[in-house]
Amino acid sequence: MGKTDLTLYFIMGSMNAEKPLSVLEDALKGGVTCFQFREKGPRALVGMEKRAFAESCQRLCRQFGVPFIVNDDVDLALEMDADGVHVGQDDAEARFAREKIGADKIVGVSVHTVEEARRAMMDGADYVGMGPVYQTSSKDDAKPVAGTTMITVVGKLFPDLPIVGIGGITAENADAVFEAGASGLSVISAIATAMDPELAARRLRKAALRSMYGR
Ligand code: 3NM
């Protein structure tokens, strides 16, 4: 395993749930292994409000010993001494993120092609996110559904680069993501919009472990 356990990687911003902090706490209780703070889009918090909400999320993650990773905002990640940063192809360059945040922190990169995966690896990414595996309604500018083919291709070409599948993943369809060679799965709505986020996280984690280890 690399710097962090990517088995069940929960992503959320304040816009993804009515009571986001209570959802995050439930998700942590249910066994998520990694958290990404993703405050993005037209309804995203900014400035002091964003910072205060991020701090509350970080506090919860610390209580559960789960890494707190900041999406896109390298400066915020640095200021908060976050465990890492995740960047997309339209955000700060991964190389720049790595240089700024330091060798010990986690850097994740969203990629969609072999070339982007190769670049991410050269730039010092600890993992790459690949998607959308299935249809998603959580990202306005999501690319067309990619399925799992590219995960298999990138996994074979770069066996040391951990891959996290993302986009429309649920406990029911998670198996294919691991079968393709992913090290983990990333979800927003499967936990954030669940009636019982703790139970949803527990089910996802169980599904992930069953796929990974056959239990
Ligand atoms: N990135 P849900 S898909 C944040 O394809 C994000 O890179 C994607 O949310 C990509 O689990 C996505 O609700 C949204 O489908 C994932």
From TrEMBL:
- Coiled-coil stretches noted in the UniProt entry, renumbered to this chain: none
List each copy of the Thiamine phosphate synthase/TenI domain by range: 8-191
Q: Which Pfam families match?
A: TMP-TENI
Enzyme Commission number(s) of this protein: 2.5.1.3
What is the name of the protein in this document?
A: Thiamine-phosphate synthase
Tell me which Gene3D superfamilies the record gives. Aldolase class I
Q: Which UniProt keywords apply?
A: Magnesium, Metal-binding, Thiamine biosynthesis, Transferase
Q: In which pathway does it act?
A: Cofactor biosynthesis; thiamine diphosphate biosynthesis; thiamine phosphate from 4-amino-2-methyl-5-diphosphomethylpyrimidine and 4-methyl-5-(2-phosphoethyl)-thiazole: step 1/1
GO molecular function ontology, one term from the record = magnesium ion binding
Q: Give the co-factor note.
A: Binds 1 Mg(2+) ion per subunit.
Q: Which NCBIfam families match?
A: thiE
Specify which residues bind 4-amino-2-methyl-5-(diphosphooxymethyl)pyrimidine according to the UniProt entry for this protein: 36-40, 71, 110, 139
Q: Which organism is it from?
A: Sporosarcina luteola
EC top class named in words: transferase
Q: What does this protein do?
A: Condenses 4-methyl-5-(beta-hydroxyethyl)thiazole monophosphate (THZ-P) and 2-methyl-4-amino-5-hydroxymethyl pyrimidine pyrophosphate (HMP-PP) to form thiamine monophosphate (TMP).
**Quick one: which residues bind 2-[(2R,5Z)-2-carboxy-4-methylthiazol-5(2H)-ylidene]ethyl phosphate?**
136-138, 168, 188-189
Q: Which reaction does it catalyse?
A: 2-[(2R,5Z)-2-carboxy-4-methylthiazol-5(2H)-ylidene]ethyl phosphate + 4-amino-2-methyl-5-(diphosphooxymethyl)pyrimidine + 2 H(+) = thiamine phosphate + CO2 + diphosphate; 4-methyl-5-(2-phosphooxyethyl)-thiazole + 4-amino-2-methyl-5-(diphosphooxymethyl)pyrimidine + H(+) = thiamine phosphate + diphosphate; 2-(2-carboxy-4-methylthiazol-5-yl)ethyl phosphate + 4-amino-2-methyl-5-(diphosphooxymethyl)pyrimidine + 2 H(+) = thiamine phosphate + CO2 + diphosphate
Q: Which cofactor does it need?
A: Mg(2+)
What protein family is recorded? Belongs to the thiamine-phosphate synthase family.
| GO cellular component labels | cytoplasm
Q: Gene of origin? A: thiE_2
What's an example Gene Ontology biological process for this entry? thiamine biosynthetic process
